[in-house]
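Q: How would the structure tokens look for this protein?
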Amino acid sequence: MFNNGKPVGAARAVSCGVFHATIFNVCIDPDYQGEGVGRLLMESLMTTFPLEWIFLTSVPDKNGFCRKLGFLPQINAMRFYSSSAPDSALQRGVLVQAGGQPHSQVVPARCKVGLNMSAGMA
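A: Here is the predicted structure in token form.
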């Protein structure tokens, strides 16, 4: 999003085009925050994807803004982190500890998924 040629807001989004979409990395120039730029950008994306549901990644201090747009907190999302990324995510408040345990003590659940890649293929 631009104002007189100056970039003031941006976001990334992907969609399957049928049921779901995800909005990532909504960024608004600090000089334009509180001026309706974020709302305009989000509403534009939300009408572009009139789907069953839209998943949104956000920083914790913008949860109130997201809730005003109709987004609800979700408890069943997970993320894979490599190396020391979980420590950074915990410090920033993006990752919460499961059951009050430090994340290093939480044993990740493993699942086996069987895929028949030849099903339906000639």
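The chain has three helices and five strands.

Confidence is low (pLDDT under 50) at residues 100-122.

Upvote if useful.
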